[in-house]
Structures are given as C-alpha cells and as structure tokens.
Amino acid sequence: MSPSGILALIIVSFCASSLCATAAQVTYDNRAIIIDGKHRVLVSGSIHYPRSTTQMWPDLMKKSREGGLDAIETYVFWNAHEPARRQYDFSGNLDLIRFLKTIQEEGLYAVLRIGPYVCAEWNYGGFPVWLHNIPGIQMRTDNDVFKNEMQNFTTLIVDMVKQANLFASQGGPVILAQIENEYGNVMSSYGEEGKAYMNWCANMAQSLDIGVPWIMCQQNDAPEPIISTCNGWYCDQYQPPRSNIPKMWTENWTGWYKNWGGKDPHRTAEDLAFAVARFYQLGGTFQNYYMYHGGTNFGRSAGGPYITTSYDYDAPLDEFDQGSDKTVNFQGMNYTVPAWSVSILPDCQNVAYNTAKVFTQTSVMVKKANVAEEEPGSLKWSWRPEMNDKTILLGKGDVTTDQILDQKEAANDLSDYFVDLKKDDPVWSHNMTLRVKSSGQILHAFVNGELIGSQWAKNGGERFVFEQNVKLNHRKNTISLLSATVGFTNYGAFFDTVPSGITGPVELIGYRGDDETVVKDLSSQKWSYKTGLEGLNQKLYSSPSLKWQQDSFPVNRTFTWYKSSFKAPLGTDPVVVDLLGMGKGLAWVNGNSIGRYWPSFIADGDCKLEPCDYRGSYDSNKCLSNCGRPSQRWYHVPRSFLNGNGDNTLVLFEEFGGNPSSVNFQTIAVGSACINAEENKKIELSCQGRQISAVKFASFGNPQGSCGSFVKGYCEGSKDASSVVEKACVGQESCTIDVSEDSFGSTTCGDDVIKTLAVEAIC
Q: For 388-532, which CATH class?
C-alpha cells in the first residue's frame, strides 16, 4: 500500500535536486534534523540496491518521490562487496555509488546504513563468511582482529562516497550515516567487551569526518554525538535517551519477511497510518518505512535460515480504546474517533484525515500468460544428472581432515552444498543404521553411491538426527553425506557461531539381537570434503558448450539439471516464472541467478477467512494468508536479465525431485483498481499505465465489503453510480472523481450515515 495519504499531511520539506547540488550543513537538536539552519520533519523509505536491478532504480526513485518520500534508506552489504578478503565487487546491482547518484537525481535525500552488520534477513547478517575463518576473530565485540576488518570496510565505503562527493556536506544526498545495527538488543550478552566495542564503533565512525551526523539504532547508551533511534512496529512511546537529540524511527516495519513453510504476513494500511500519525503527534521528526520496496533475494543472498527468495515485506512502495469508537470533545466540538485511530485537524476544527479511513487505491495484480510463446505452458526441456561424477562413488574430495567440520569453516560460503566423504570398514551386522546429527539444514545420505535417505529441519533453525537403515558390503564401504544450507543465521547474540552443517557425531549402529547394540563413532576418523556440486563447479547454468540429454526428461528425480529456451514476454510488464511442480533447488535465467526455489514447501496452519481487524497492536502473526499453499510459487525475472529479441535460457537445478512440465513464464499487471472513499473527497483512480476498460462495481451511499467483494448497502445516490464513473474513467489511464451528492445525487441514508463511494474498475 502507498502511505501517501499520510505523508501529504506531515511532510514539511523535501530535497529539490537543484538544492542538493550545493554543500549543506546537517546538524540536529531535540526538535529535528537541521539542514542549512532549517528544521526538517522527514519521511523516508528503505530500498536495498542488491534486491533490485540498476534498470529498476530510476523508476523506484520516481515512485518514491511521487509517494511523498523525502529520503531513501539503504544498508551496505559487506559480504556482497567483499566476497573474498580484499577482493571487491561494486558492479551491476552492487554499484552503490550509482544507486546514491540515482537517489540524488530524483531530488531525494539518502540515509546510508553502513553497518557493516545489517541483519536485513540477509545471509549471515551481511558478514562475509571468510571472517569466521580468520584465526583469533570474535565478531561484534572488543576484538582487534574483527575491528581491523570492520574498520577497513567501513573506511572503504566512506572514502568511496567522499570521492564521489555524495555526503551532504559535499553537495550530495547523504544526510545521515549509520554504524553498527541494533547492537543494543544483544550487547548485554557480550559483557564489558560489548560496551567497549560499541564505544569503539562510535569513535571510529566519528573519526571518519563525513560532515553529517551518525546514528545507531536501538542503542540507548550511544555516546555523544551519535543519535540513537528506534526500530519496531510502533515508536510513538519511544523517548530519546538524551535531551538534545531528535526522536527518530529508522525502521517502521510495513509488514514482515516470509520463511519457507511460512504463511504470508500482512499489516493493514489503517494500522500503519495510525502508527505513523501517533509517532509524529508525540514529537517524532524522522520516520522510515521498512521496507518501501522489498525486492528479491537474488542468488544465495537470503538469510535465515529459511528466508524466502521474495523479500516482498508487504511493502508500499491521547489515549485510545482498542475495541470501540469514541466521541471526543475538543474545544467545544464533538468528534467521533474510530478505535485505534488518530484524527488530524490542521485548523483545529475540521478533520482532514483519520488513520482508520485510508482512502488510497487498492490494485489487484493479475498474472498473464507469455504471449510471445505459441504454447506458453509447454517448454521443451533437456537435462543432465548431477550425481554422475566419481566423488560420491569413490570418496574423493578437495580437503581431508580427521574431524567433522562446520560448513562455514570448510565451504567458506561458496555454495549451499557441501559433501562429507568417508571410507570405512565398519563392524558388521545384518541390522545396521547410519545416524547423523545435523544442523545443515538439509541432509542427503549416500552409501556406496546410493541415496539412502534425506531429511531437513522443518523450521530451519532446529537441529535434527538423521537415522536410516543401511546395507553394507563385507569389504570397504563409502559413506557420503551431502549437507545443504538455506541461508546462514543473520540475527542474535553470537549468531556467527551458530553451527551449520553436520555437527556430528556420525555413527554406525549395529543391532545384534538380545538388545545388544554396537555403536561405532566415525566422527574423528579421516573424512574428505568437497564444496559445491559438480554442475555448480562446471557452471552448467551459463556454459553453452556442455552437452545436455535431449531425450525424454525424467521427473521427480533428485539431483537433476533441467534446461529450456523461451522467448521474452512481450511488453514492459514485470516478468515472473511459475515453478509450481518443482521441489527445491536453484534457478538461473541467461546465467543470472534468480535465487533459491522451494514451491514444494507448503505453508502450514489455518488462516482466518474474515477480514483482518486493524484495531489492536500488530505483530507478524496477526494477519496471515496463503495457508496450505506454496510459500513461494512465482519468482521475479527482471527484464534486464532477458534478451528482448531472440532466445533466453532457463536452467534449474532440482535437489528434491520435481516435474518441470508446468513451468511457464507470465507477466504481472494491474487487473482491477478499487477505491473506497468518504464524501467530500476528490479521489484518483488509476490503472498504472493501462486503460480503464470497464466498471465492475460502483455505489455511492453505504456500500459494504472490500475490493473484489463490494456489495450495495441499504441506501444509494439517486444517480446511477456506475454510469457516472464509466463516463469519467473508461478509456482513460487515470481519472479523478468528486465524491459528493452533486456528482452522484442525493441519498436517503440519513444524517447519521457517513456516505462513501466504492468502485472496482477493470484494467
């Protein structure tokens, strides 16, 4: 939802592009951020540059400004920019400087959250995994090894931004910078070393002399001159810890992230509007919608564990009673205030806005078949097996050791997949099992080259014990354990030390009858390790020269590669690929990773059928949908990944076993647009670049229901509402409607009924 209905009432300034070209002095007091001597009440929105593409950035900035934003917030992602120590990447959608310049070109300010710990549901919280393997390191505490690495990266980013003249003190858009992130939530777990580290962060940041204030979120003991800020669903009750700093809200959670196997969380527009109005009502000066654009976790960037590829976040782009409305007398006049709402009276007499009555348009998006294909639902497939190399059969790996290694230590985050290989002459029994303790979060076990079973943690965070019957040879046997992760942990005290992979022990259990059991622990014996799978190492997703089998492709087969060609969908609408029927794996379009897929993971539980009640405190379990369906079925394919003229290539690596027969490409467009507004308002209805073709429903009076299920009430205007709206809107991309009896005729609703207009238009 777009919160512009709120923003229009509370924005008092914005950064015009002509003003951003000259150096600005940015300071603060207890009232607000001060830019060139003027107190600014600011509204911001989070957009993470790696979760979109460079081609998308100008349009995102344009829509952000049109939506009423003053600024864009973004994290800086250390592991994306420094994937290997002192090897940097700022190309493509990692071009931070280009992103900041795009913000500036649209006349917006920027808030640069360097961290470099970011959380953000990003893999390993944004830390590069190679940090974990530096001798003597302890992360996010008073440890010289870690502080040296953190200072090196932070200084690198600051110097790049300085060289591009992008701090406001240089004429750029960056008015605030952040060091660390939500450390106050976990600092007590680190003891005195944690306190010392926090103070070091503040001092190190200040020494970089960027000419704009530094902030720390959730850090009430941040030292002068650092500004402490609030994150959460509600920050109206937050009080800055020092009397000389403004009240700032760096993360107003517009929704919530989604896990594999989880339902879709939703936060109502009314509750979000209420939270924002209360914040500004009680002295707030800066508020940021987290997220304003959520985007996609391309590649293996999703954290977790078990964060989905989509990072939609349900993003947009004085006391009160929770359950009932109240009549409030203010300066001799009575006002009806709906429960869990704030009314805004700019002239202290007339209600200009109430947060329970959000009159923004609701757009229903629809998916359409790829009209560039003659048979859009039927792609032609070739395939290759993954497990045809000799690694699994012969036990040959890249590294040999006499212990079970954590996946972060051995794989260094180069792959989700990690193979442990063991040759052994076990104690013999006719009734034996292989038992493995894992926190992988997925384990596939092979004995002598044959898959004997697979298991995975249902919520991604739990450890589990795999145990399966095995048949062994009298001669030597090879045990191969394929451990797969789905995002390293990204939050919590000591999150970086959470085990990943096969933690051990690995045991063979022999049952000899008469309840006699023999256990042989294989953990400390010699193991070989191999990072990644053969197809990943060969880059099957981007190597055209390798041979693929063209005969009838297998279905429901584990560890299988599939490849198909397709034409790019016509037009400019966003493109998605429907992967229903597949199990779990990875997907690439023209060599570009579009992330992990797992449509076989079905969201559990029961979802309530009745509409979500915006009243009462919100949390991520309050308003849920999508129960009994795949957590994610459709996957975004940016237009910039596609060849507009000619063939495109889709490659899938299927881990669990699936059927690609139903895989197809579709486009997403506005199917219908709805509005529900009170009288004496002028509303705009838009199909966002498409023409309004018909009016499905229109009623002025007391219509009931919501978009897609509107019904007429017991009273209506004397004029046919559908005809009025059709005349004003059909054939137009957008139209303006005056919601009044002058337009729709008088009603018999009575003075005690607040008359509204409900419209659903077809695009």
A: mainly beta
